[in-house]
Amino acid sequence: xxxxxxxxxxxxxxxxxxxxxxxxxxxxxxxxxxxxxxxxxxxxxxxxxxxxxxxxxxxxxxxxxxxxxxxxxxxxxxxxxxxxxxxxxxxxxxxxxxxxxxxxxxxxxxxxxxxxxxxxxxxxxxxxxxxxxxxxxxxxxxxxxxxxxxxxxxxxxxxxxxxxxxxxxxxxxxxxxxxxxxxxxxxxxxxxxxxxxxxxxxxxxxxxxxxxxxxxxxxxxxxxxxxxxxxxxxxxxxxxxxxxxxxxxxxxxxxxxxxxxxxxxxxxxxxxxxxxxxxxxxxxxxxxxxxxxxxxxxxxxxxxxxxxxxxxxxxxxxxxxxxxxxxxxxxxxxxxxxxxxxxxxxxxxxxxxxxxxxxxxxxxxxxxxxxxxxxxxxxxxxxxxxxxxxxxxxxxxxxxxxxxxxxxxxxxxxxxxxxxxxxxxxxxxxxxxxxxxxxxxxxxxxxxxxxxxxxxxxxxxxxxxxxxxxxxxxxxxxxxxxxxxxxxxxxxxxxxxxxxxxxxxxxxxxxxxxxxxxxxxxxxxxxxxxxxxxxxxxxxxxxxxxxxxxxxxxxxxxxxxxxxxxxxxxxxxxxxxxxxxxxxxxxxxxxxxxxxxxxxxxxxxxxxxxxxxxxxxxxxxxxxxxxxxxxxxxxxxxxxxxxxxxxxxxxxxxxxxxxxxxxxxxxxxxxxxxxxxxxxxxxxxxxxxxxxxxxxxxxxxxxxxxxxxxx
Length: 711
Fold this sequence. Notes:
7-stranded mixed β-sheet; 11% strand; 27 helices; 6-stranded antiparallel β-sheet
């Protein structure tokens, strides 16, 4: 998706001399509610990310929720940004070239032209105004039901004045296809209709260059596009969001804002106090930290630290912790935490997770623990769901519990190592680099045990942690592990000795109790692991069960196959249990055929035909294999669009997928890849016609439900 956006920007740049893309801050914070330092860094990082991916300097800027004030515009003007996009209601007054000045009425400023905002410092920045009425019809009305109607309504918004005009819509990207099903298709139709009727499609930067501002404006301070009360949606019970759950209150917003601000203020004080002792140029170091955020490979971090860090290796690690403290304090301010109807939602919980990490870093850097006071504030933020409690309860239950300490990371690693035959001695594990030593694996029938030592090096802060660990598995979901910092080798040797003694005697439940007491700091069962890691462990556990069951099914099939064949010859319908055996068998055969190389499409088609005629159903797993093969074949076709073999295999596999009645959504990845590759494929149009592949391409377009590829 990112690549498609970047390529579209380059295409617009080549056509118009100005790119489509606008920059935005690194974090989606409400600018007027954040401290100056956080705003400036969020903007600086956002600009650097833009330049890194789009390979050009941005001209325009989108403010989160279009929330604006003069201070923010001053930062943008100083950074060289030419213009921002605002709503007409965010303009307070307009000053004409003839010296007259008038307040903007209830309809807002004229959205067809550009303006210049004069800031308190004397700096200026351009303002382009979007059509609020038309945007509202798209976002909240039914205008996206017809692309032609959308185009007509847009064309009607131009007036008869001389000179260039622009009509701009501003809506959430997920409007097209998510909030409004089929909206992306109707948008494409609208754009096509507009161009066919002689109106030029442009972008904001290009229009700004050909129609520079003539009039000056005064902005309406502390306003936004999604809150008629200014920026109150992100700090008070203003009424916005109450329509989601009528009768619920948003009184929780104020204490959540107070808690986030309290943390941000303290983090900023610590940064400004410690940064001069750890970084030779704190402002430049903070600004340039984006290079590390973008790529945490050791060489990149080393180069950064050599440029900015002062002192020992320990001091370098503290410098990284300090920079991460700033980053997490910034991310905790992301606007979605306040946007919706209740504090018990993923967005506020995510903000609290950033708060928890910032508090951990703050305490490690200074020894100062402000968590108790923070929890006092969060206690006032009551959820509308009675059983949930308040912000403190949510913070403890969901933010703190999701934190991964080095001990918990070592415990999860110990669980995984139970099932890996020959683990590497050194590898990356989530945000750590792990170095293993002294592994002592044990087996007793189905049961498995393990003790060992791991050094975990944070790839973010370069902190080192040496821990000892133990893990145990003795059947299905009984997987346990624990870890704690290693004090000395004698301590580990005692752990290994006692663990081995319990295990060899088959005292497995007693061993679980021992691990939970001896390694309590990181003790977890499989449900205590992170979701991704839990899935990996459960995958290992169930793998052996699947192998056992498959073997038993094979034996049953071999035993009853003659009887099933006899029933088939006599025309007798299979009993349901026989049908399950047959489905297992054909599942296995189809899976083996699909993964064989080179792929035998004719055999797959024959198998699919038999399966369909007998009324059998294949598992969704087989459907996923076919869908993945289809997506892989699309990749091959893009590499060589004139390959008849690839094209026909692709069509045949999609036919099989449909014949077996797998879910249409399974082909979405292949459809996405084909749409992304359309410009490439169309450059081969002449060769495709000469080779007689037009019909095949038409069939492919029909099967994947995309526009004709042979145009």
